[in-house]
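Hi L.,

You mentioned the student needs an example of a multi-chain input paired with its predicted structure. This one should do, with 420 residues in total across all chains.
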Amino acid sequence: MGFFAKMRFPGDRHASTMAPSRGGTGAAAASSQGVASAPARAAHPSGNLRVSNGLKEFLWNLDGLGHGSLLDLGPVWQSTITFFVERGFKVYADDLLRDWKHFVTAEDERLRKIQPGEDASEMTPDSRADRFLQSNIKYPRDNFDAILLWDLLDFMERALVKRFVEHLADVLRPGGVIFAMFHAGKPDSFHRYRILDRQTLELIATPALFSIQRSYQNREIQDLFRGFRSSKSFVGRDQLREVLFVK
Amino acid sequence: MWKKPDESKPQSGTDSPGFAAASPTRTNAPNAPPVSPNAPACVSQGITIKGEIFGKEDLFIDGTIQGKIHFSDGCVTIGPNGRVNADIEAREIVIRGDVTGSLRARERVQIWGTGKLSGDMQTRGIVIEDGATLRGKVEVTQKDEPVRSARAGASPGSADAFTRSAVQAKSPE
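Structure written out for the whole complex:
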């Protein structure tokens, strides 16, 4: 089907390798990323917009899919929901970082109540990561055609990240695509993202749920997503790397 | 962003609904306004109902409900203090409090900034205010496609501004 046929980067698993692509989304185009066009800025006076070649590529992969299923792991926004609903998608919303925050807060409270000598083996990072995933992202295998992961991985603790990515691979159907972001350094402020149009994201500054846990290098990103058959990345001037992964 | 439709806003200046006229205790007061026969039913704060609720008019919930709510031709509003653990079927559903359950709205679902929904929804239109919380599936049906109903006889509603339009996706330029 078209979804498979369009992905033409077999073997391109190196996130830093900018494959030549449609629409000039190569290195030259990527270098101009991060600044929204003048018309887009005029339409949205907040000005905190970002031209996203990763989003454009992500949507290109979904073209012709028809009634697909999309999992948005960020907070729910009218514009993002409408954008995909208008294209015939069923949208699953699940603000995972907020859920993780609630979970961690409850776990910390629980840990404080454990008396010396009590068994705290299930309070290890590995154990609580397992327990979190048992009660979240409970979807059937191969349920989604696309996942908006945003920059969640940067804010999750290490024990959770690997398990979480494996979990996402389970719920994504073969040929499905993930749109992720990685900060090259510590960002100035905490943002959530919403889609305004096919290539524009609006950055919404919100109170930080977590600080950056770590900045992933290319090799680490590749290792995390080693089960995926191709990847493509775009780096903006704001040091935000957008990466697509195809299962 | 979007402008909230005036007709779905509670008319009271407080967070509590301005449906005092529907309260039997108020109707006995000497200067109480006349009770409109079309006044929405109201489950006030502090009231808990467990079971299945049916109706044809509008319903305002600022209390707690567990079970099922069928108001196929009416608007069900969950107020800021409302806590609903129920499947809801209505013409329109407005969420300002906490809802856990599946929603089927013939026209639209509105989730205000204070609203929290954990559950799937099937509707023809959706309005989400910034700050709203949603965990579940959003399925928007077309105007000529009936919202699947657990109860027979749900007729398609009139077209509205939120009806999904078919948009042909294009490749990047």
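You could point out the following to them. The interface with chain B takes residues 22-23, 25, 56-57, 59-60, 62-64, 75-78, 81-82, 85-88, 90-95, 98-99, 198-199, 204 of chain A (CB under 8 Å). Residues 1-33, 37-41 of chain A have pLDDT under 50 and may be disordered.

Best wishes,
N.
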